[in-house]
Structures are given as structure tokens and as C-alpha cells.
Amino acid sequence: MYRRMRAKREYRDREEVEVAVLDALVNRADDGMTVFELRAAVSADIDELEAALSRLKDDELIVVDAGGGRTEIKPAECVIPEEPVDEGEESIVDRLRERLPF
């Protein structure tokens, strides 16, 4: 069974698009993703995606590698959990964050 990875819990209180970007990148941590691949994986328009990437880069939560003829974006090591988390496994804290306005 394929287990989908999600960013560590301490990074899940960010804006929705940022969390979606981090989750997508964590799932492809070894390969990285291009902006086009991220755009296909994240439900956001290009302006929202660019703003989220900028904030994540400023906070050093992503690494951008422009070598090799294509720009790849990878998650910073601190964002990657040590073990995969089932998509259906949500902690009580995760559920509260979704319901309460913080």
C-alpha cells in the first residue's frame, strides 16, 4: 500500500496553499518538482502559488535548484517527517486547526 507523506505537523498551521505545496514536495522529496508540476498538484492559481513559494523560500522551508537545465523545488530537510503518515490519520490538533480560526 502506498502511504502518502505529509509535511511535519509543526508546519501545518501555515496558509492552505503553503501546506499543499509542502505536502506535494514532501511526496516527491527525492525528485523535486517544477513550478508546472506543483501547479498541477496544488489547487491554486499561479499568483497564489508564486506567493506561497516566495514565503516558503524566505522561511527556508524549500530549496530551489536551478541546475541541470530545469528549476527544481524540494522541501527542506526539516519539513520531511521521519515516517509516512496515512492520509486518513489526522490528529486531534489537525482537526481543531481546520475547524477553529487561528
Question: Judging by the overall fold, what is the CATH architecture?
Answer: Orthogonal Bundle
What is the ordering of alpha helices and beta strands?
HHHEEH
User: Which structural class do you get from the secondary structure elements?
Assistant: mainly alpha
The domain count comes to 1
Characterize the largest beta sheet: strand count, sense, and whether it forms a barrel. 2 strands, antiparallel
Mean pLDDT: 84
Find the CATH topology. Arc Repressor Mutant, subunit A
Features:
102 residues, mainly alpha, Arc Repressor Mutant, subunit A, 4 helices
What does this structure look like?
With 102 residues, the chain is mainly alpha-helical. It has helices at residues 16-27, 35-41, 46-58, 92-99, and strands at residues 62-65, 72-75. It has one domain (9-97): Arc Repressor Mutant, subunit A (Orthogonal Bundle). It has four helices and two strands. The longest helix is centred in the middle third of the chain and has 13 residues, at 46-58. The chain is globular and about 45 Å long.
